[in-house]
Amino acid sequence: MPTSIPKPDRVRPGQGKATPNRSLERGIAVLRAFRAGSAMLGNSEIAERTGLSRSTVSRLTQSLIETGMLEYIPQFRAYRLGVPVLSMAHAMRDSSQVLKVATPLMVELAMRHKINVGLAVADGDEMVYLESFRYNRRQSLRTVVSGQRIPMALTSLGRAYLATLTPEDFSRMLAAFAGKSRGEAWRGLRREIEAAVSSVQDKGYCVACWQPQVVAMATPMRFEGYGVHVLNVSVSTQQDAQTVEAALAKPLMELAEAIRVRMRSLE
After folding, report:
1. Which of 11, 120, 162, 228 is 20 to 30 A from 217, alpha carbon to alpha carbon?
2. What are the pLDDT tens digits along the chain (267 aa)?
3. Which of 187, 179, 231, 185 is CA-nearest to residue 205?
4. Are residues 151 and 54 in the same domain?
């Protein structure tokens, strides 16, 4: 069953007064089970990913089919996301003033330095890319698109986000990560996370190398009316992390400040 984790940066009007709608929460959990590379899922797979019983999943998927959020493919006895999900994603992107402000600045930096530039937000124990521009000179083995998820604990994006949490929420996130990675592997990962958080507090950014020959740096940004957004730059290189940091720390932080300035001008 999936680990329960906090979502501290969600805006919840009237929080603490309304009773949560469990059916709605479970229906959303079913939709969340669909990821890139998982175009179709059966009841068993959905149950495994959500921690819900198969009978509950069966009831929820029927309701989601009736509302158009899911489509059923008889020959595979599986479901796929319906068209309304795409229109909601488009509406979300179109409504984001942060994206509108950040996108041209991100493109300009990516092209000028021939690097990869991304913007992401947290969702559970993962980071979700809102936008990514890939202009690295070297061919990367990984293609990043809007909506793609990456692990929070391993990446510069995720660790920069973790640096923005309260001590209580940070401890809960670490406990959630510890449930998935134990022993010496977890102790080493925890040291890396804590070092990254200290780096964000001291320098404003952190560095991570969670993929071979890829160095990434990230810095968190807060905007009124939005959750935490995290900006990152990365390169596919044989250079060490210190060399990349020396070259890209200033461009990253200048880009973040330029986005902040433009956002403030819209207030």
Report:
1. 11
2. 343 444 444 445 445 567 788 899 999 999 999 987 778 999 999 999 999 999 999 999 999 999 999 999 999 999 999 999 989 988 988 899 999 999 999 999 999 999 999 999 999 899 999 999 988 655 544 557 788 889 999 999 999 999 999 999 999 999 999 988 777 889 999 999 999 999 999 999 999 998 878 999 999 999 988 989 999 999 988 899 999 999 999 999 999 999 999 999 987
3. 231
4. no
Kindly report the CATH number assigned to the domain that includes residue 61: 1.10.10.10
The CATH number linked to 197 is 3.30.450.40
Contact 189, 153 (CB under 8 A): yes
**Count of CB atoms situated within 10 Å of the CB of 88:** 12
The token pair that represents 80 in the structure block: 């796929």
Classify 12 as helix, strand or coil. coil
| 27 shares its domain with 113 | no
CA distance 102 to 111: 14
Number of domains in the chain: 2
With contact defined as beta carbons under 8 Å apart, do 99 and 131 qualify?
A: yes
Which residues, other chains included, contact 193 with Cβ-Cβ below 8 Å and sequence gap of 6+? 153, 159, 162, 174, 177
Q: Crossing angle of helices 97-113/241-265, nearest 10°?
A: 140
Domain boundary among 59, 82, 105: 82
AA letter at 110: A
pTM comes to 0.83
Judge contact between 43 and 56, C-beta under 8 A.
no
Residues 33 and 115 in one domain: no
Q: In which domain, by residue range, is 245 found?
A: 96-265
